[in-house]
Structure formats: structure tokens, C-alpha cells
Specification:
The protein is α+β, with helices and mostly antiparallel strands. It has one domain. It has two helices and twelve strands, in the order H-E-E-E-E-E-E-E-E-E-E-E-E-H. It has helices at about 1-20, 205-229, and strands at about 30-35, 40-45, 50-55, 60-70, 80-90, 100-110, 115-130, 135-140, 145-150, 155-165, 170-180, 185-200. A six-stranded antiparallel beta sheet has the order 2-1-6-11-8-9, with no helix packed on it. A six-stranded antiparallel beta sheet has the order 3-4-5-12-7-10, with no helix packed on it.
Length: about 230
């Protein structure tokens, strides 16, 4: 009876984790903010889909491609990632009343990469008009772990920390960028990437785990031999 109870309990726990990690519960969104404007939120498609967004918002014209590997990992890298690719922003001729804030977030990543993990955030710019500045932070489960990263021209910044995705069935990643532009029709083009990858196990631990079945079998043979003796 106890055996079947254990099997039923294990099945129930597995079912709970499966439904908790359902992609239907995930939310991949882009939010634009500027002082004096009503925030604009766009719901995007996850799963390595190229989300092309072109919109005039406040004093800015925004063109970008956004991606999320949610609910899993990018097969080409083995990492869970969240990315703005070639985000191109143009300041309207009248100039800006405030900085533009761009928030990309997804809370539907399956927590299957281990604990702890490597949490990496990068900012790369191919062009920023004179006097302009991009400032970015990267967050895991709502906690900013990397940043602020600041660029005022062509360049790149990449930082990695060891972090915990928590004990839930899913975790969330986000990046938050502020763009400051001055002058008429100034612009910026940059890429923001936030990603999580597994921390490799120490070689000694891998060898120990690999040898455990052999040791267990050896112990069983020894006990059987002593019993017969």
C-alpha cells in the first residue's frame, strides 16, 4: 500500500509542476514610458519568435525586434534569453519632453537549468547621437542584479553574476533601458540581451556521480558474498 501511495504522490507532484510551467501562464511584454505620456504595453509572442515593433510613442519613433526563448531555452545556445535586437529609436523633430524608458519582460521561463545559474546582461550600441546616453539594468525575478550599464557612443558592456532562479516552477527575466537624446532628430541604435545559463558541475562531482552505480553494485556483490560465507 505504501508503495502505491508513494507512486501516486510522485505523480501528483509532477502534474502540479507540469501545469505550473504551462506556457499559457507566461507573459512576454514590451512597455514604453515617457513623462507626460500614458504608458504603452505590447503583448509579444514568446518562443524565439521575431517580434517586429514599429510605433510612434510620445516624442519618439521606435523600431525594434524583440525575442524570448520562453518557456524553454534557445536550442542554438542552450540558454534562456530575452533580447532587443537592433533597437532603433529616432527623436521626433520637435524634441523630447522626457527620456524614453523601454522595459522588456517575460515571466514564463521553465525553471530547469539548475540552481545556481549564470545570469548575464549585455548592452551594445552601434550608434548614439552626440549628447545621447543609454542606461540599462537587468533583473531576475524582479531583482536588479546587473547594471546600470551606461553607453554614450559605440561600444559594448557584458556582465555575468551567479544567481538563484528560486524554487518555483518558472522564473522571470527583464531588462529596463532609459534613452536620453538631445537635439532635433537625434537617434540611437542598440541591442540589449539578458540570459540565463546552467553552471557546470565540478569535474570531481561528475566523476563521483558517474561512479556511484558501480560502487553500489560492488557493495551489493560484497554483501551477497559475505552472506553466503
Amino acid at each position: 500500500m505504501n508503495r502505491w501511495l508513494k507512486i501516486l504522490t510522485a505523480f501528483s507532484v509532477g502534474a502540479v509542476l507540469l501545469f505550473a510551467a504551462s506556457p499559457a501562464e507566461s507573459a512576454f511584454t514590451l512597455t514604453l514610458k515617457e513623462t507626460g505620456q500614458v504608458d504603452k504595453t505590447v503583448v509579444l509572442a514568446a518562443g524565439n519568435v521575431a517580434n517586429i515593433t514599429t510605433v510612434v510613442f510620445g516624442d519618439y519613433s521606435v523600431n525594434m525586434v524583440s525575442r524570448s526563448s520562453s518557456p524553454g531555452v534557445d536550442p542554438s545556445t542552450g540558454q534562456a534569453n530575452l533580447q532587443h535586437v537592433d533597437l532603433n529609436i529616432q527623436l521626433n523633430p520637435a524634441g523630447a519632453k522626457g527620456d524614453l524608458e523601454i522595459i522588456l519582460t517575460d515571466n514564463g521561463y521553465a525553471n530547469a537549468l539548475g540552481n545556481p545559474v549564470y545570469f548575464e546582461g549585455s548592452l551594445a550600441s552601434s550608434f548614439i547621437s552626440p549628447g545621447g546616453k543609454v542606461t540599462t539594468t537587468h533583473s531576475l525575478n524582479g531583482v536588479a542584479l546587473i547594471g546600470p550599464q551606461v553607453l554614450t557612443g559605440v561600444g559594448s558592456i557584458d556582465n555575468t553574476v551567479v544567481a538563484s532562479p528560486g524554487g518555483g516552477a518558472t522564473f522571470a527575466m527583464s531588462n529596463d533601458s532609459f534613452l536620453h537624446l538631445t537635439g532635433i532628430a537625434s537617434s540611437a541604435q542598440f541591442t540589449v540581451t539578458t540570459q540565463v545559463s546552467p553552471v557546470p558541475a565540478p569535474a570531481g562531482l561528475v566523476l563521483a556521480l558517474t561512479g556511484m552505480p558501480v560502487l553500489a553494485f560492488g557493495g551489493w556483490v560484497r554483501r551477497r558474498w559475505l552472506k553466503k560465507a
